[in-house]
Amino acid sequence: MNNNRHWQIRIFILCWTTYALIYFGRLNLSVALPELQKTFHWSKSNLGLIGTSFFWSYGIGQLINGYLGDRLSSRIFITIGILCSGLINICFSFSKSFYIMIILWALNGYFLSMIWGPMVKILSKWFSTEERNNLSIGISTSSVGGYLLGWGVIGFIVKKIGWTYGFLIPGIVLSIYSFIWYMSIRNNPKKNHRAVKEKNKDYTLTYVLKKKGLYFIIPCAFCQGIIKESIALWGPLLLMETKKLSLGSATKYILLLPFMNFVGITLGGFLNKKLNYKPKFTMFILLCIGLVSTTIFLIIPLNVVYTLFILGTISASVYGVNSILLSYIPLSVGKYNKSSSVAGLLDFCSYFAAGIAIYATGYIVDNFSWSGVIYVWIVVTLLALIFLFVNYLFRKVHD
């Protein structure tokens, strides 16, 4: 194995591990929600505000840090993000105030937003254009590992020793790992054989968005973010309340979702390759699968196993879309030196919408039912499909 290949494997493993671990420090809120509700007697709307504070600050941070990530050292930038997230999780474990929790979780969102865009930048420099489809699939699977950590390990911790340790232990792990990242990572290859040659011209973000036809993709990022993060945060509670499960049982069942998400990510990469790398058409097919599954979820009464399978299919479809949006597309603009900016913009759209959805989900469930949430998922999926179809017509007219 030549030295460059050795470094590529090392860089990929470090990036994969990092992104999996940050789920350890953000999904813990999802698992802890039932215990927080039981301990403090807060409404779902109030609990949703904690999640909303994370997603809005994460989304705004993506916009800011995606831009900065193209100009500053990714190694240092990501180290700061991991370390600060770890320290905030530790502080959260000692908090008993609703408003302090909102502030801390918002700060957690901002510092975690320093990771994805700069990480895509690192990967775009270490891997060639020909490798980006497989790379986007591979790095997207880190979320599967993250969900297993977040829902599996944290679920066990919260059940056995309490919700506070569900934040304290991830905080310690992230703080320690930040130093491992700093000592082990490199921003780009040392030699002159850079994996991706960047164009010398300083292209603007608006130029790249127009050149790659991404303006109609932005609404799709909003739509998939609503469904993806609603399932991520409210999934365990949805199963508990609709199927009358305990926290322990719901956590065990919900662990199927990361494996379904892996199938969705893999299917997205497979379809994209078979369709000769047409990411928008790939997303259209995946969203159609999601629309059918969501409709079945709404109109057909199902037992726990079938409910979980259909919920997993919905989640898998949006994860396939997410891997195209936030991995493949940003990697494809590496030659314009705008990978971090594009990743940051699309992530901002995804998580800004998610922030609204998290609070709205709590409000809808408090005042109506879980069926109202499913109707919202159907509507936003239809909107995403419409935008993709309009994009197809627009490109056809102008090509």
Write the layout of secondary structure elements.
Blueprint: H1 3-24, H2 28-40, H3 44-69, H4 74-93, H5 98-112, H6 116-126, H7 132-140, H8 142-161, H9 165-184, H10 205-211, H11 218-242, H12 247-254, H13 256-274, H14 279-299, H15 304-332, H16 339-367, H17 370-398
List keywords for this structure.
single chain, 399 residues, mainly alpha, Growth Hormone, Chain: A, globular, transport, Sugar_P_transporter, transmembrane
What report would you give on this structure?
- The protein is mostly helical and 399 residues long.
- It has one domain (3-188, 205-398): Growth Hormone, Chain: A.
- The chain has helices spanning 3-24, 28-40, 44-69, 74-93, 98-112, 116-126, 132-140, 142-161, 165-184, 205-211, 218-242, 247-254, 256-274, 279-299, 304-332, 339-367, 370-398.
- Helix 14 packs antiparallel against helix 15 (304-332).
- The relative contact order is 0.16.
- The model has no long low-confidence stretch (mean pLDDT 86).
